Amino acid sequence: MNNKRSMNKMKIVICFFLSAGFLSCTKWLDLSPENAVIKEEFWQTKEQVHAAVLGCYASLLGAPAGVSDRPLSEYFFLWGELRADMVSPGIGISTDEQEIVNVNILAANSLTKWGAVYRSINYCNTVIDFAPDALQSDNTFTESSLKAYLAETKALRGLLYFYLLRTFGEVPLKLTATTTDEDIQPVPKSTKEEVLAQIIKDLEDASLNIMKTYGGVTTDKGRLTYYAVQTILADVYLWAERYEDCINAADIVINSGNFGLIEGNAGWYTTLYANGNSAESIFEFQYDEQKLNTFYPIFTTTRRKLIASERVMEEIYTVNYDDPLLKDIRGEYSAVRTTDNSIWKYLGNDTQTGIRTVDQSFAHWPVYRYAELLLIKAEACAQVNRGQEALDIVEVIRTRAQALETTHRELAASQTEEITEYILEERARELAFEGKRWYDVLRNAKRDNYRNLHLLINMVSVAVPPERQQSAMVKYQDKDSHYLPVNESELLIDKSLKQNPFYE
Q1: Which residues in the chain come in under a pLDDT of 50?
Q2: How many CA atoms lie within 13 A of 436 on its CB side?
């Protein structure tokens, strides 16, 4: 299935959700539809189940008409970058976004809303709860097909809860569909440990029945496959400090032979970012001419919200002033346009140095790439005394990128802490502006009961405006401050929710 046909099918599914009241919800957790036509009128055939699954993916791309939520790719970018050290405010930054940068976060901040994520979770819950009904009315719908669909939606639910866990810490676990007002029940927050356990359960269950391929490049990159699930599991295990499990999951993907690094030649950027869905892609949000992403107004030169920090080129990639032709290919005109520090990854067209027009703003959102999977494995290897293997993986990534000697570290295999920091540095170069940086630093800071809290404190010293740095560093001494507050609107609606203690 080509990209346009796939997106058109998703748009049809969105119409279904709208007609059912499924996207117009405004009540608790943004889960409540207006009526119950879903169960009575929809879950009759395998085609309807298929359409509903595609609707789960469609919901990731943007809020329905009349709903003010941002698309999930925008939330994920802002949650993963605003508190980190690679972006700086642009002239168009909003007050709420600036306050996140300043580490002056209140429960009234619109970026602490989680409703858009829970809306997509509810779509997944609805498929999980109601899709089995189609087995009773459609004798061409097989048990194995049903299991595959259920696996796919469980995997997506697990991924969405993983974003919530890393952003908010304790969150409500809602695992059943909300389709009528009668379904609305207060759900208190679960602990981080309980949320993590459910994420792992969803992903491990999904891995038993999910498809390895859907028969086309766009569907294999735009829907979760068995290999995408193993990649997410590797990332989740790394967060959970289950390093051997992380390595095993990563090796399944690596040994499949289905993915590889794009060669670092003149067409590298075009293949990986301008076009997307490359051999390196594992899972991407799929945008096209009919469904544009919202990154264009965030990153363009007129009233742009964010630019690349000065330190990105100077300290992260570095510049060879003696020979400007020697450069890390991930820096200039990949991550950054150095003439004005524009974040370039989503702006460049297929010439790389040419900029997209607003109607061409359909660069995909890369959730996972093969390069990241390799670095996930490297980080896990470093924690289990496989330091040389970790260093070898980093060297593969650096060789493809033509990384400069100034960013190279000469390390021994036994230097676990130094190798771990080297991998963190390499992740900054490889995954710049892909919504990873805050989560990467937090994961490394919290390891072994926050043995490396200094990583967060050091980041504040370069990321926060000077007049706010001392306050921010004091705040980050409190581990609860590393997670966003529950938005005040959720607290007003659901009295069973308790605020993150740091924001009380």
Answers
A1: 1-37
A2: 24
